[in-house]
Every structure is written in C-alpha cells, then in structure tokens.
TrEMBL record:
Transmembrane segments: none annotated. The keyword Cell wall biogenesis/degradation does not apply. One of its GO terms (biological process) is DNA integration. This is Integrase. It comes from Azospirillum argentinense. Residues 108-308 form the Tyr recombinase domain. One of its GO terms (molecular function) is DNA binding. Residues 1-86 form the Core-binding (CB) domain.
Amino acid sequence: MNTARACADFLVHCRVAKTLSAHSLRAYSTDLREFERFVGAGAEVASIDRHVLRRYLSHLFETRRLKESSVKRRIACLKVMFRWLELDEVIAISPFHRLDARIRLPKRLPRNLTDDEVRRLRRTAMDRVGLSGRITEAKALRVGRRTDPNAFSALVVLEILLCTGLRVGELTSVRLDDIDLVERVITIIGKGSRQRRVFLPDDETATLVAAYAATAVTRRGSHDRFIVTASGAPATTEFVRSLLRTTATDAGIARRITPHMLRHTAATQLLENGVDIRFVQRLLGHQSISTTEIYTAVTDASLKAALGRAAGRMRGGG
C-alpha cells in the first residue's frame, strides 16, 4: 500500500469507526498531507522506517521551522496512523516501535483575563444590548426581540464561556436539545467524542440562555444549533472569535482576546475559589489531570501577587 492510499484509508477509519469531530478530521488531514508531500504519495508505507521519521522530524523543525506544539501534533497523528496500519496487518510493525520521538514543549502559563478585563467585557456586552442591573426574563426577552442579534450573541457567548470553560468548537456544536434549562445543564460532545455535562451557575445565566434560544427561533430556520449568526445560520468558530474581538475593542482592551483565554480564565477562577481540581478537570473535559494542573501555577502566581500587595499595605501602615 502506498502512502496516499494509507492516509486516505486512515481518514475514512477516523471518520467512520472513530467518529472523530470535523475539527479533528481537518487537523489529521492537514498533518497527513504534509507527511505525504515529504515522503511522496507513491512511497510504500512498508518502506518507511525510523530513519525516514527522524528525517521528517528534522524537516519539520529545521526546514518548516514549526513550533514544538505543531510538530508534536503532526508526529502524534502519524503514530496513530502507523499503529492502525500495524493492527490492520498492512505493515508488520510500526516504525515508531522503540523510537524516542518525544518532543518537549516549552512551559507556558495559560493566558488569562484580568479581573478588570472580565468586568469591562461584561459591562460592554451588557451596554451594547441595553441591559443593566439584574437580568430578568422580561428584560432578556425584550433584548432578544429588539437589539442587534450579533450583540445579543456576543453577550450570551461571553457569559457561557466564562462560566463553563467550553472550547469554542464545543460551543458552536451545542444544539437546542443539548440544553436542559430546568437542571441548568448543557451536554457537550468534546474531544474524542467524549460526552460530559457543564452547568449554568445561576438563574440569571439560565434566563439569558432561555431568552436567546426563544428569540432566535425565527432566524434559525431548519437547523437546531444554539448559537446563530444575524442571518440565522449556524455560528462558526470564526464568528464567535469575531464577536469577542469586537466586544474587546469596544471595551478598550488593546490585546487580542480569544475564546481560549476565556476557557483559561474560567478554570483559574474556579480553582482560586476553592473548587477541587478533579471537578475542574471534569468540567473542562481533560483526560489527564496533569493538563488541568497547569492552572495551579497561575493560581500560585495570583497568590504571590496578592501576598505582595498585602505586604506593601502592611509596610505602608507601619
């Protein structure tokens, strides 16, 4: 079997047997095309050995000059494909067998929003739809019927991301039937098609979500996606990113705000408020608790800053 055929068959396997998300399939397809270009579409997969893989690693780092995270993703994709080829008896043994292809990623703290940035984003999103004070059902419905649809979408997106820590792709995939407003629960299909539930923390957030679902129904048409554009089409991840960029600009925030920064912020705030890390792991949909533990470094940094401020006040008072 040549490389082109192996890559194509593996993608079919990922779509049909593994039921990977569209996002994961696009990423796998991109990664496999790069490898196919490197070795040649007609190269026999049985001829690919660890020496070829080492040259490919050098190519990614030295010729393509990719970041460690990008190289790690490409190699992980290949490792899964060759493991599948081995199990399917297309090749005798994976070329990754006993190959040390570990890639150490630089340790970077998650990029969080400051408390002031969160306040400014929320205030701006509320002002743009004319909401103030406590959110009631009547207020939320009035906003949904009369305001700019994209401004209302921005407010709902902001509140959901900040209280649930959803990935942007998970949010745009939410369907109306996934939302239980009685229990204030949203059922999510996350990475690897793993199902989990996230929770709307209070009645005001649930009221906002209910009003958005109700007032967008006339624009939604035949689909059942929860977040929609002004024309009623299902929201894309880029649409959500655009909503947040516009809100941040209107709030006078100079740096670029992304949905993933809201995810980081949600996780950090939960830990700082004493929520057990295992619950945060479950909420975020992390398979390994070590992934969740990166947020403990952020809370340590916050603790250090708080202690510094307290020490300064004590010195001033002395």
